[in-house]
Amino acid sequence: MVRAKKPKPQIANNIRRLRFDHDEMTQKALAEATGVTRQTIMAIEAAKYSPSLELAFQIAQAFGEPIQNVFSYQPDGTED
Amino acid sequence: MSFQERMSLTVMTASTVAYIIFMLLIGRAWNAGRFEGPEGLVYTGKTLLIFIAIFIVLTVGSLIIQAIFETVLTGEEDAMDEGEDERDRAYEFQSLRIQSIVSGVFFCASLGALWAGFSGPVAIHLIFFGFFIGMIAGELRKFLLYREG
Asked: Residues in domain HTH cro/C1-type (chain A) (predicted)?
């Protein structure tokens, strides 16, 4: 019997749009504002790495937005 | 390919080259019977300690040369300046976990080898080989994690 593969939960985000809305903030600028590397911002933006709660709050703070406007939980791995 | 991926590749390549050279040299000594008898353990300890020193110098040296090479030729001096963050630490942790599991398996295998009647030097070399394979497996895991994102 073949079991269907359970989709991996995913943390979706609006970082790309929010960066664009904030005077086209660069990934490097966001990385500096949150104290991580640009590669980490790239990975989070591409939903390939789920940030810690602290970093998620820092990113939201950098945009001046509540965290739920930046990140959302997708239990079945589907995007918005 | 990111800076971290290239660093992982450098560590894997440098350590594999160092270990192959070590195996070739050890092979000769083994055939000459230098690991037999009570002096065999002394010789094992001496050769492994020397090799560990050479191994560290070679691996760290390769990383320094790579960093200098990249800074001079590609101008990516940011890569090293950016330092380490939570993602690096998370990947490092996963790498160490793999490394511990593999090394542990080889440690048990070395105890099994002693039980099966193999000599002390064989068991020590098996443990050492486990550390090497564990390190390669850990670096490979880290490389793949960075590759994914």
From this structure: 15-70
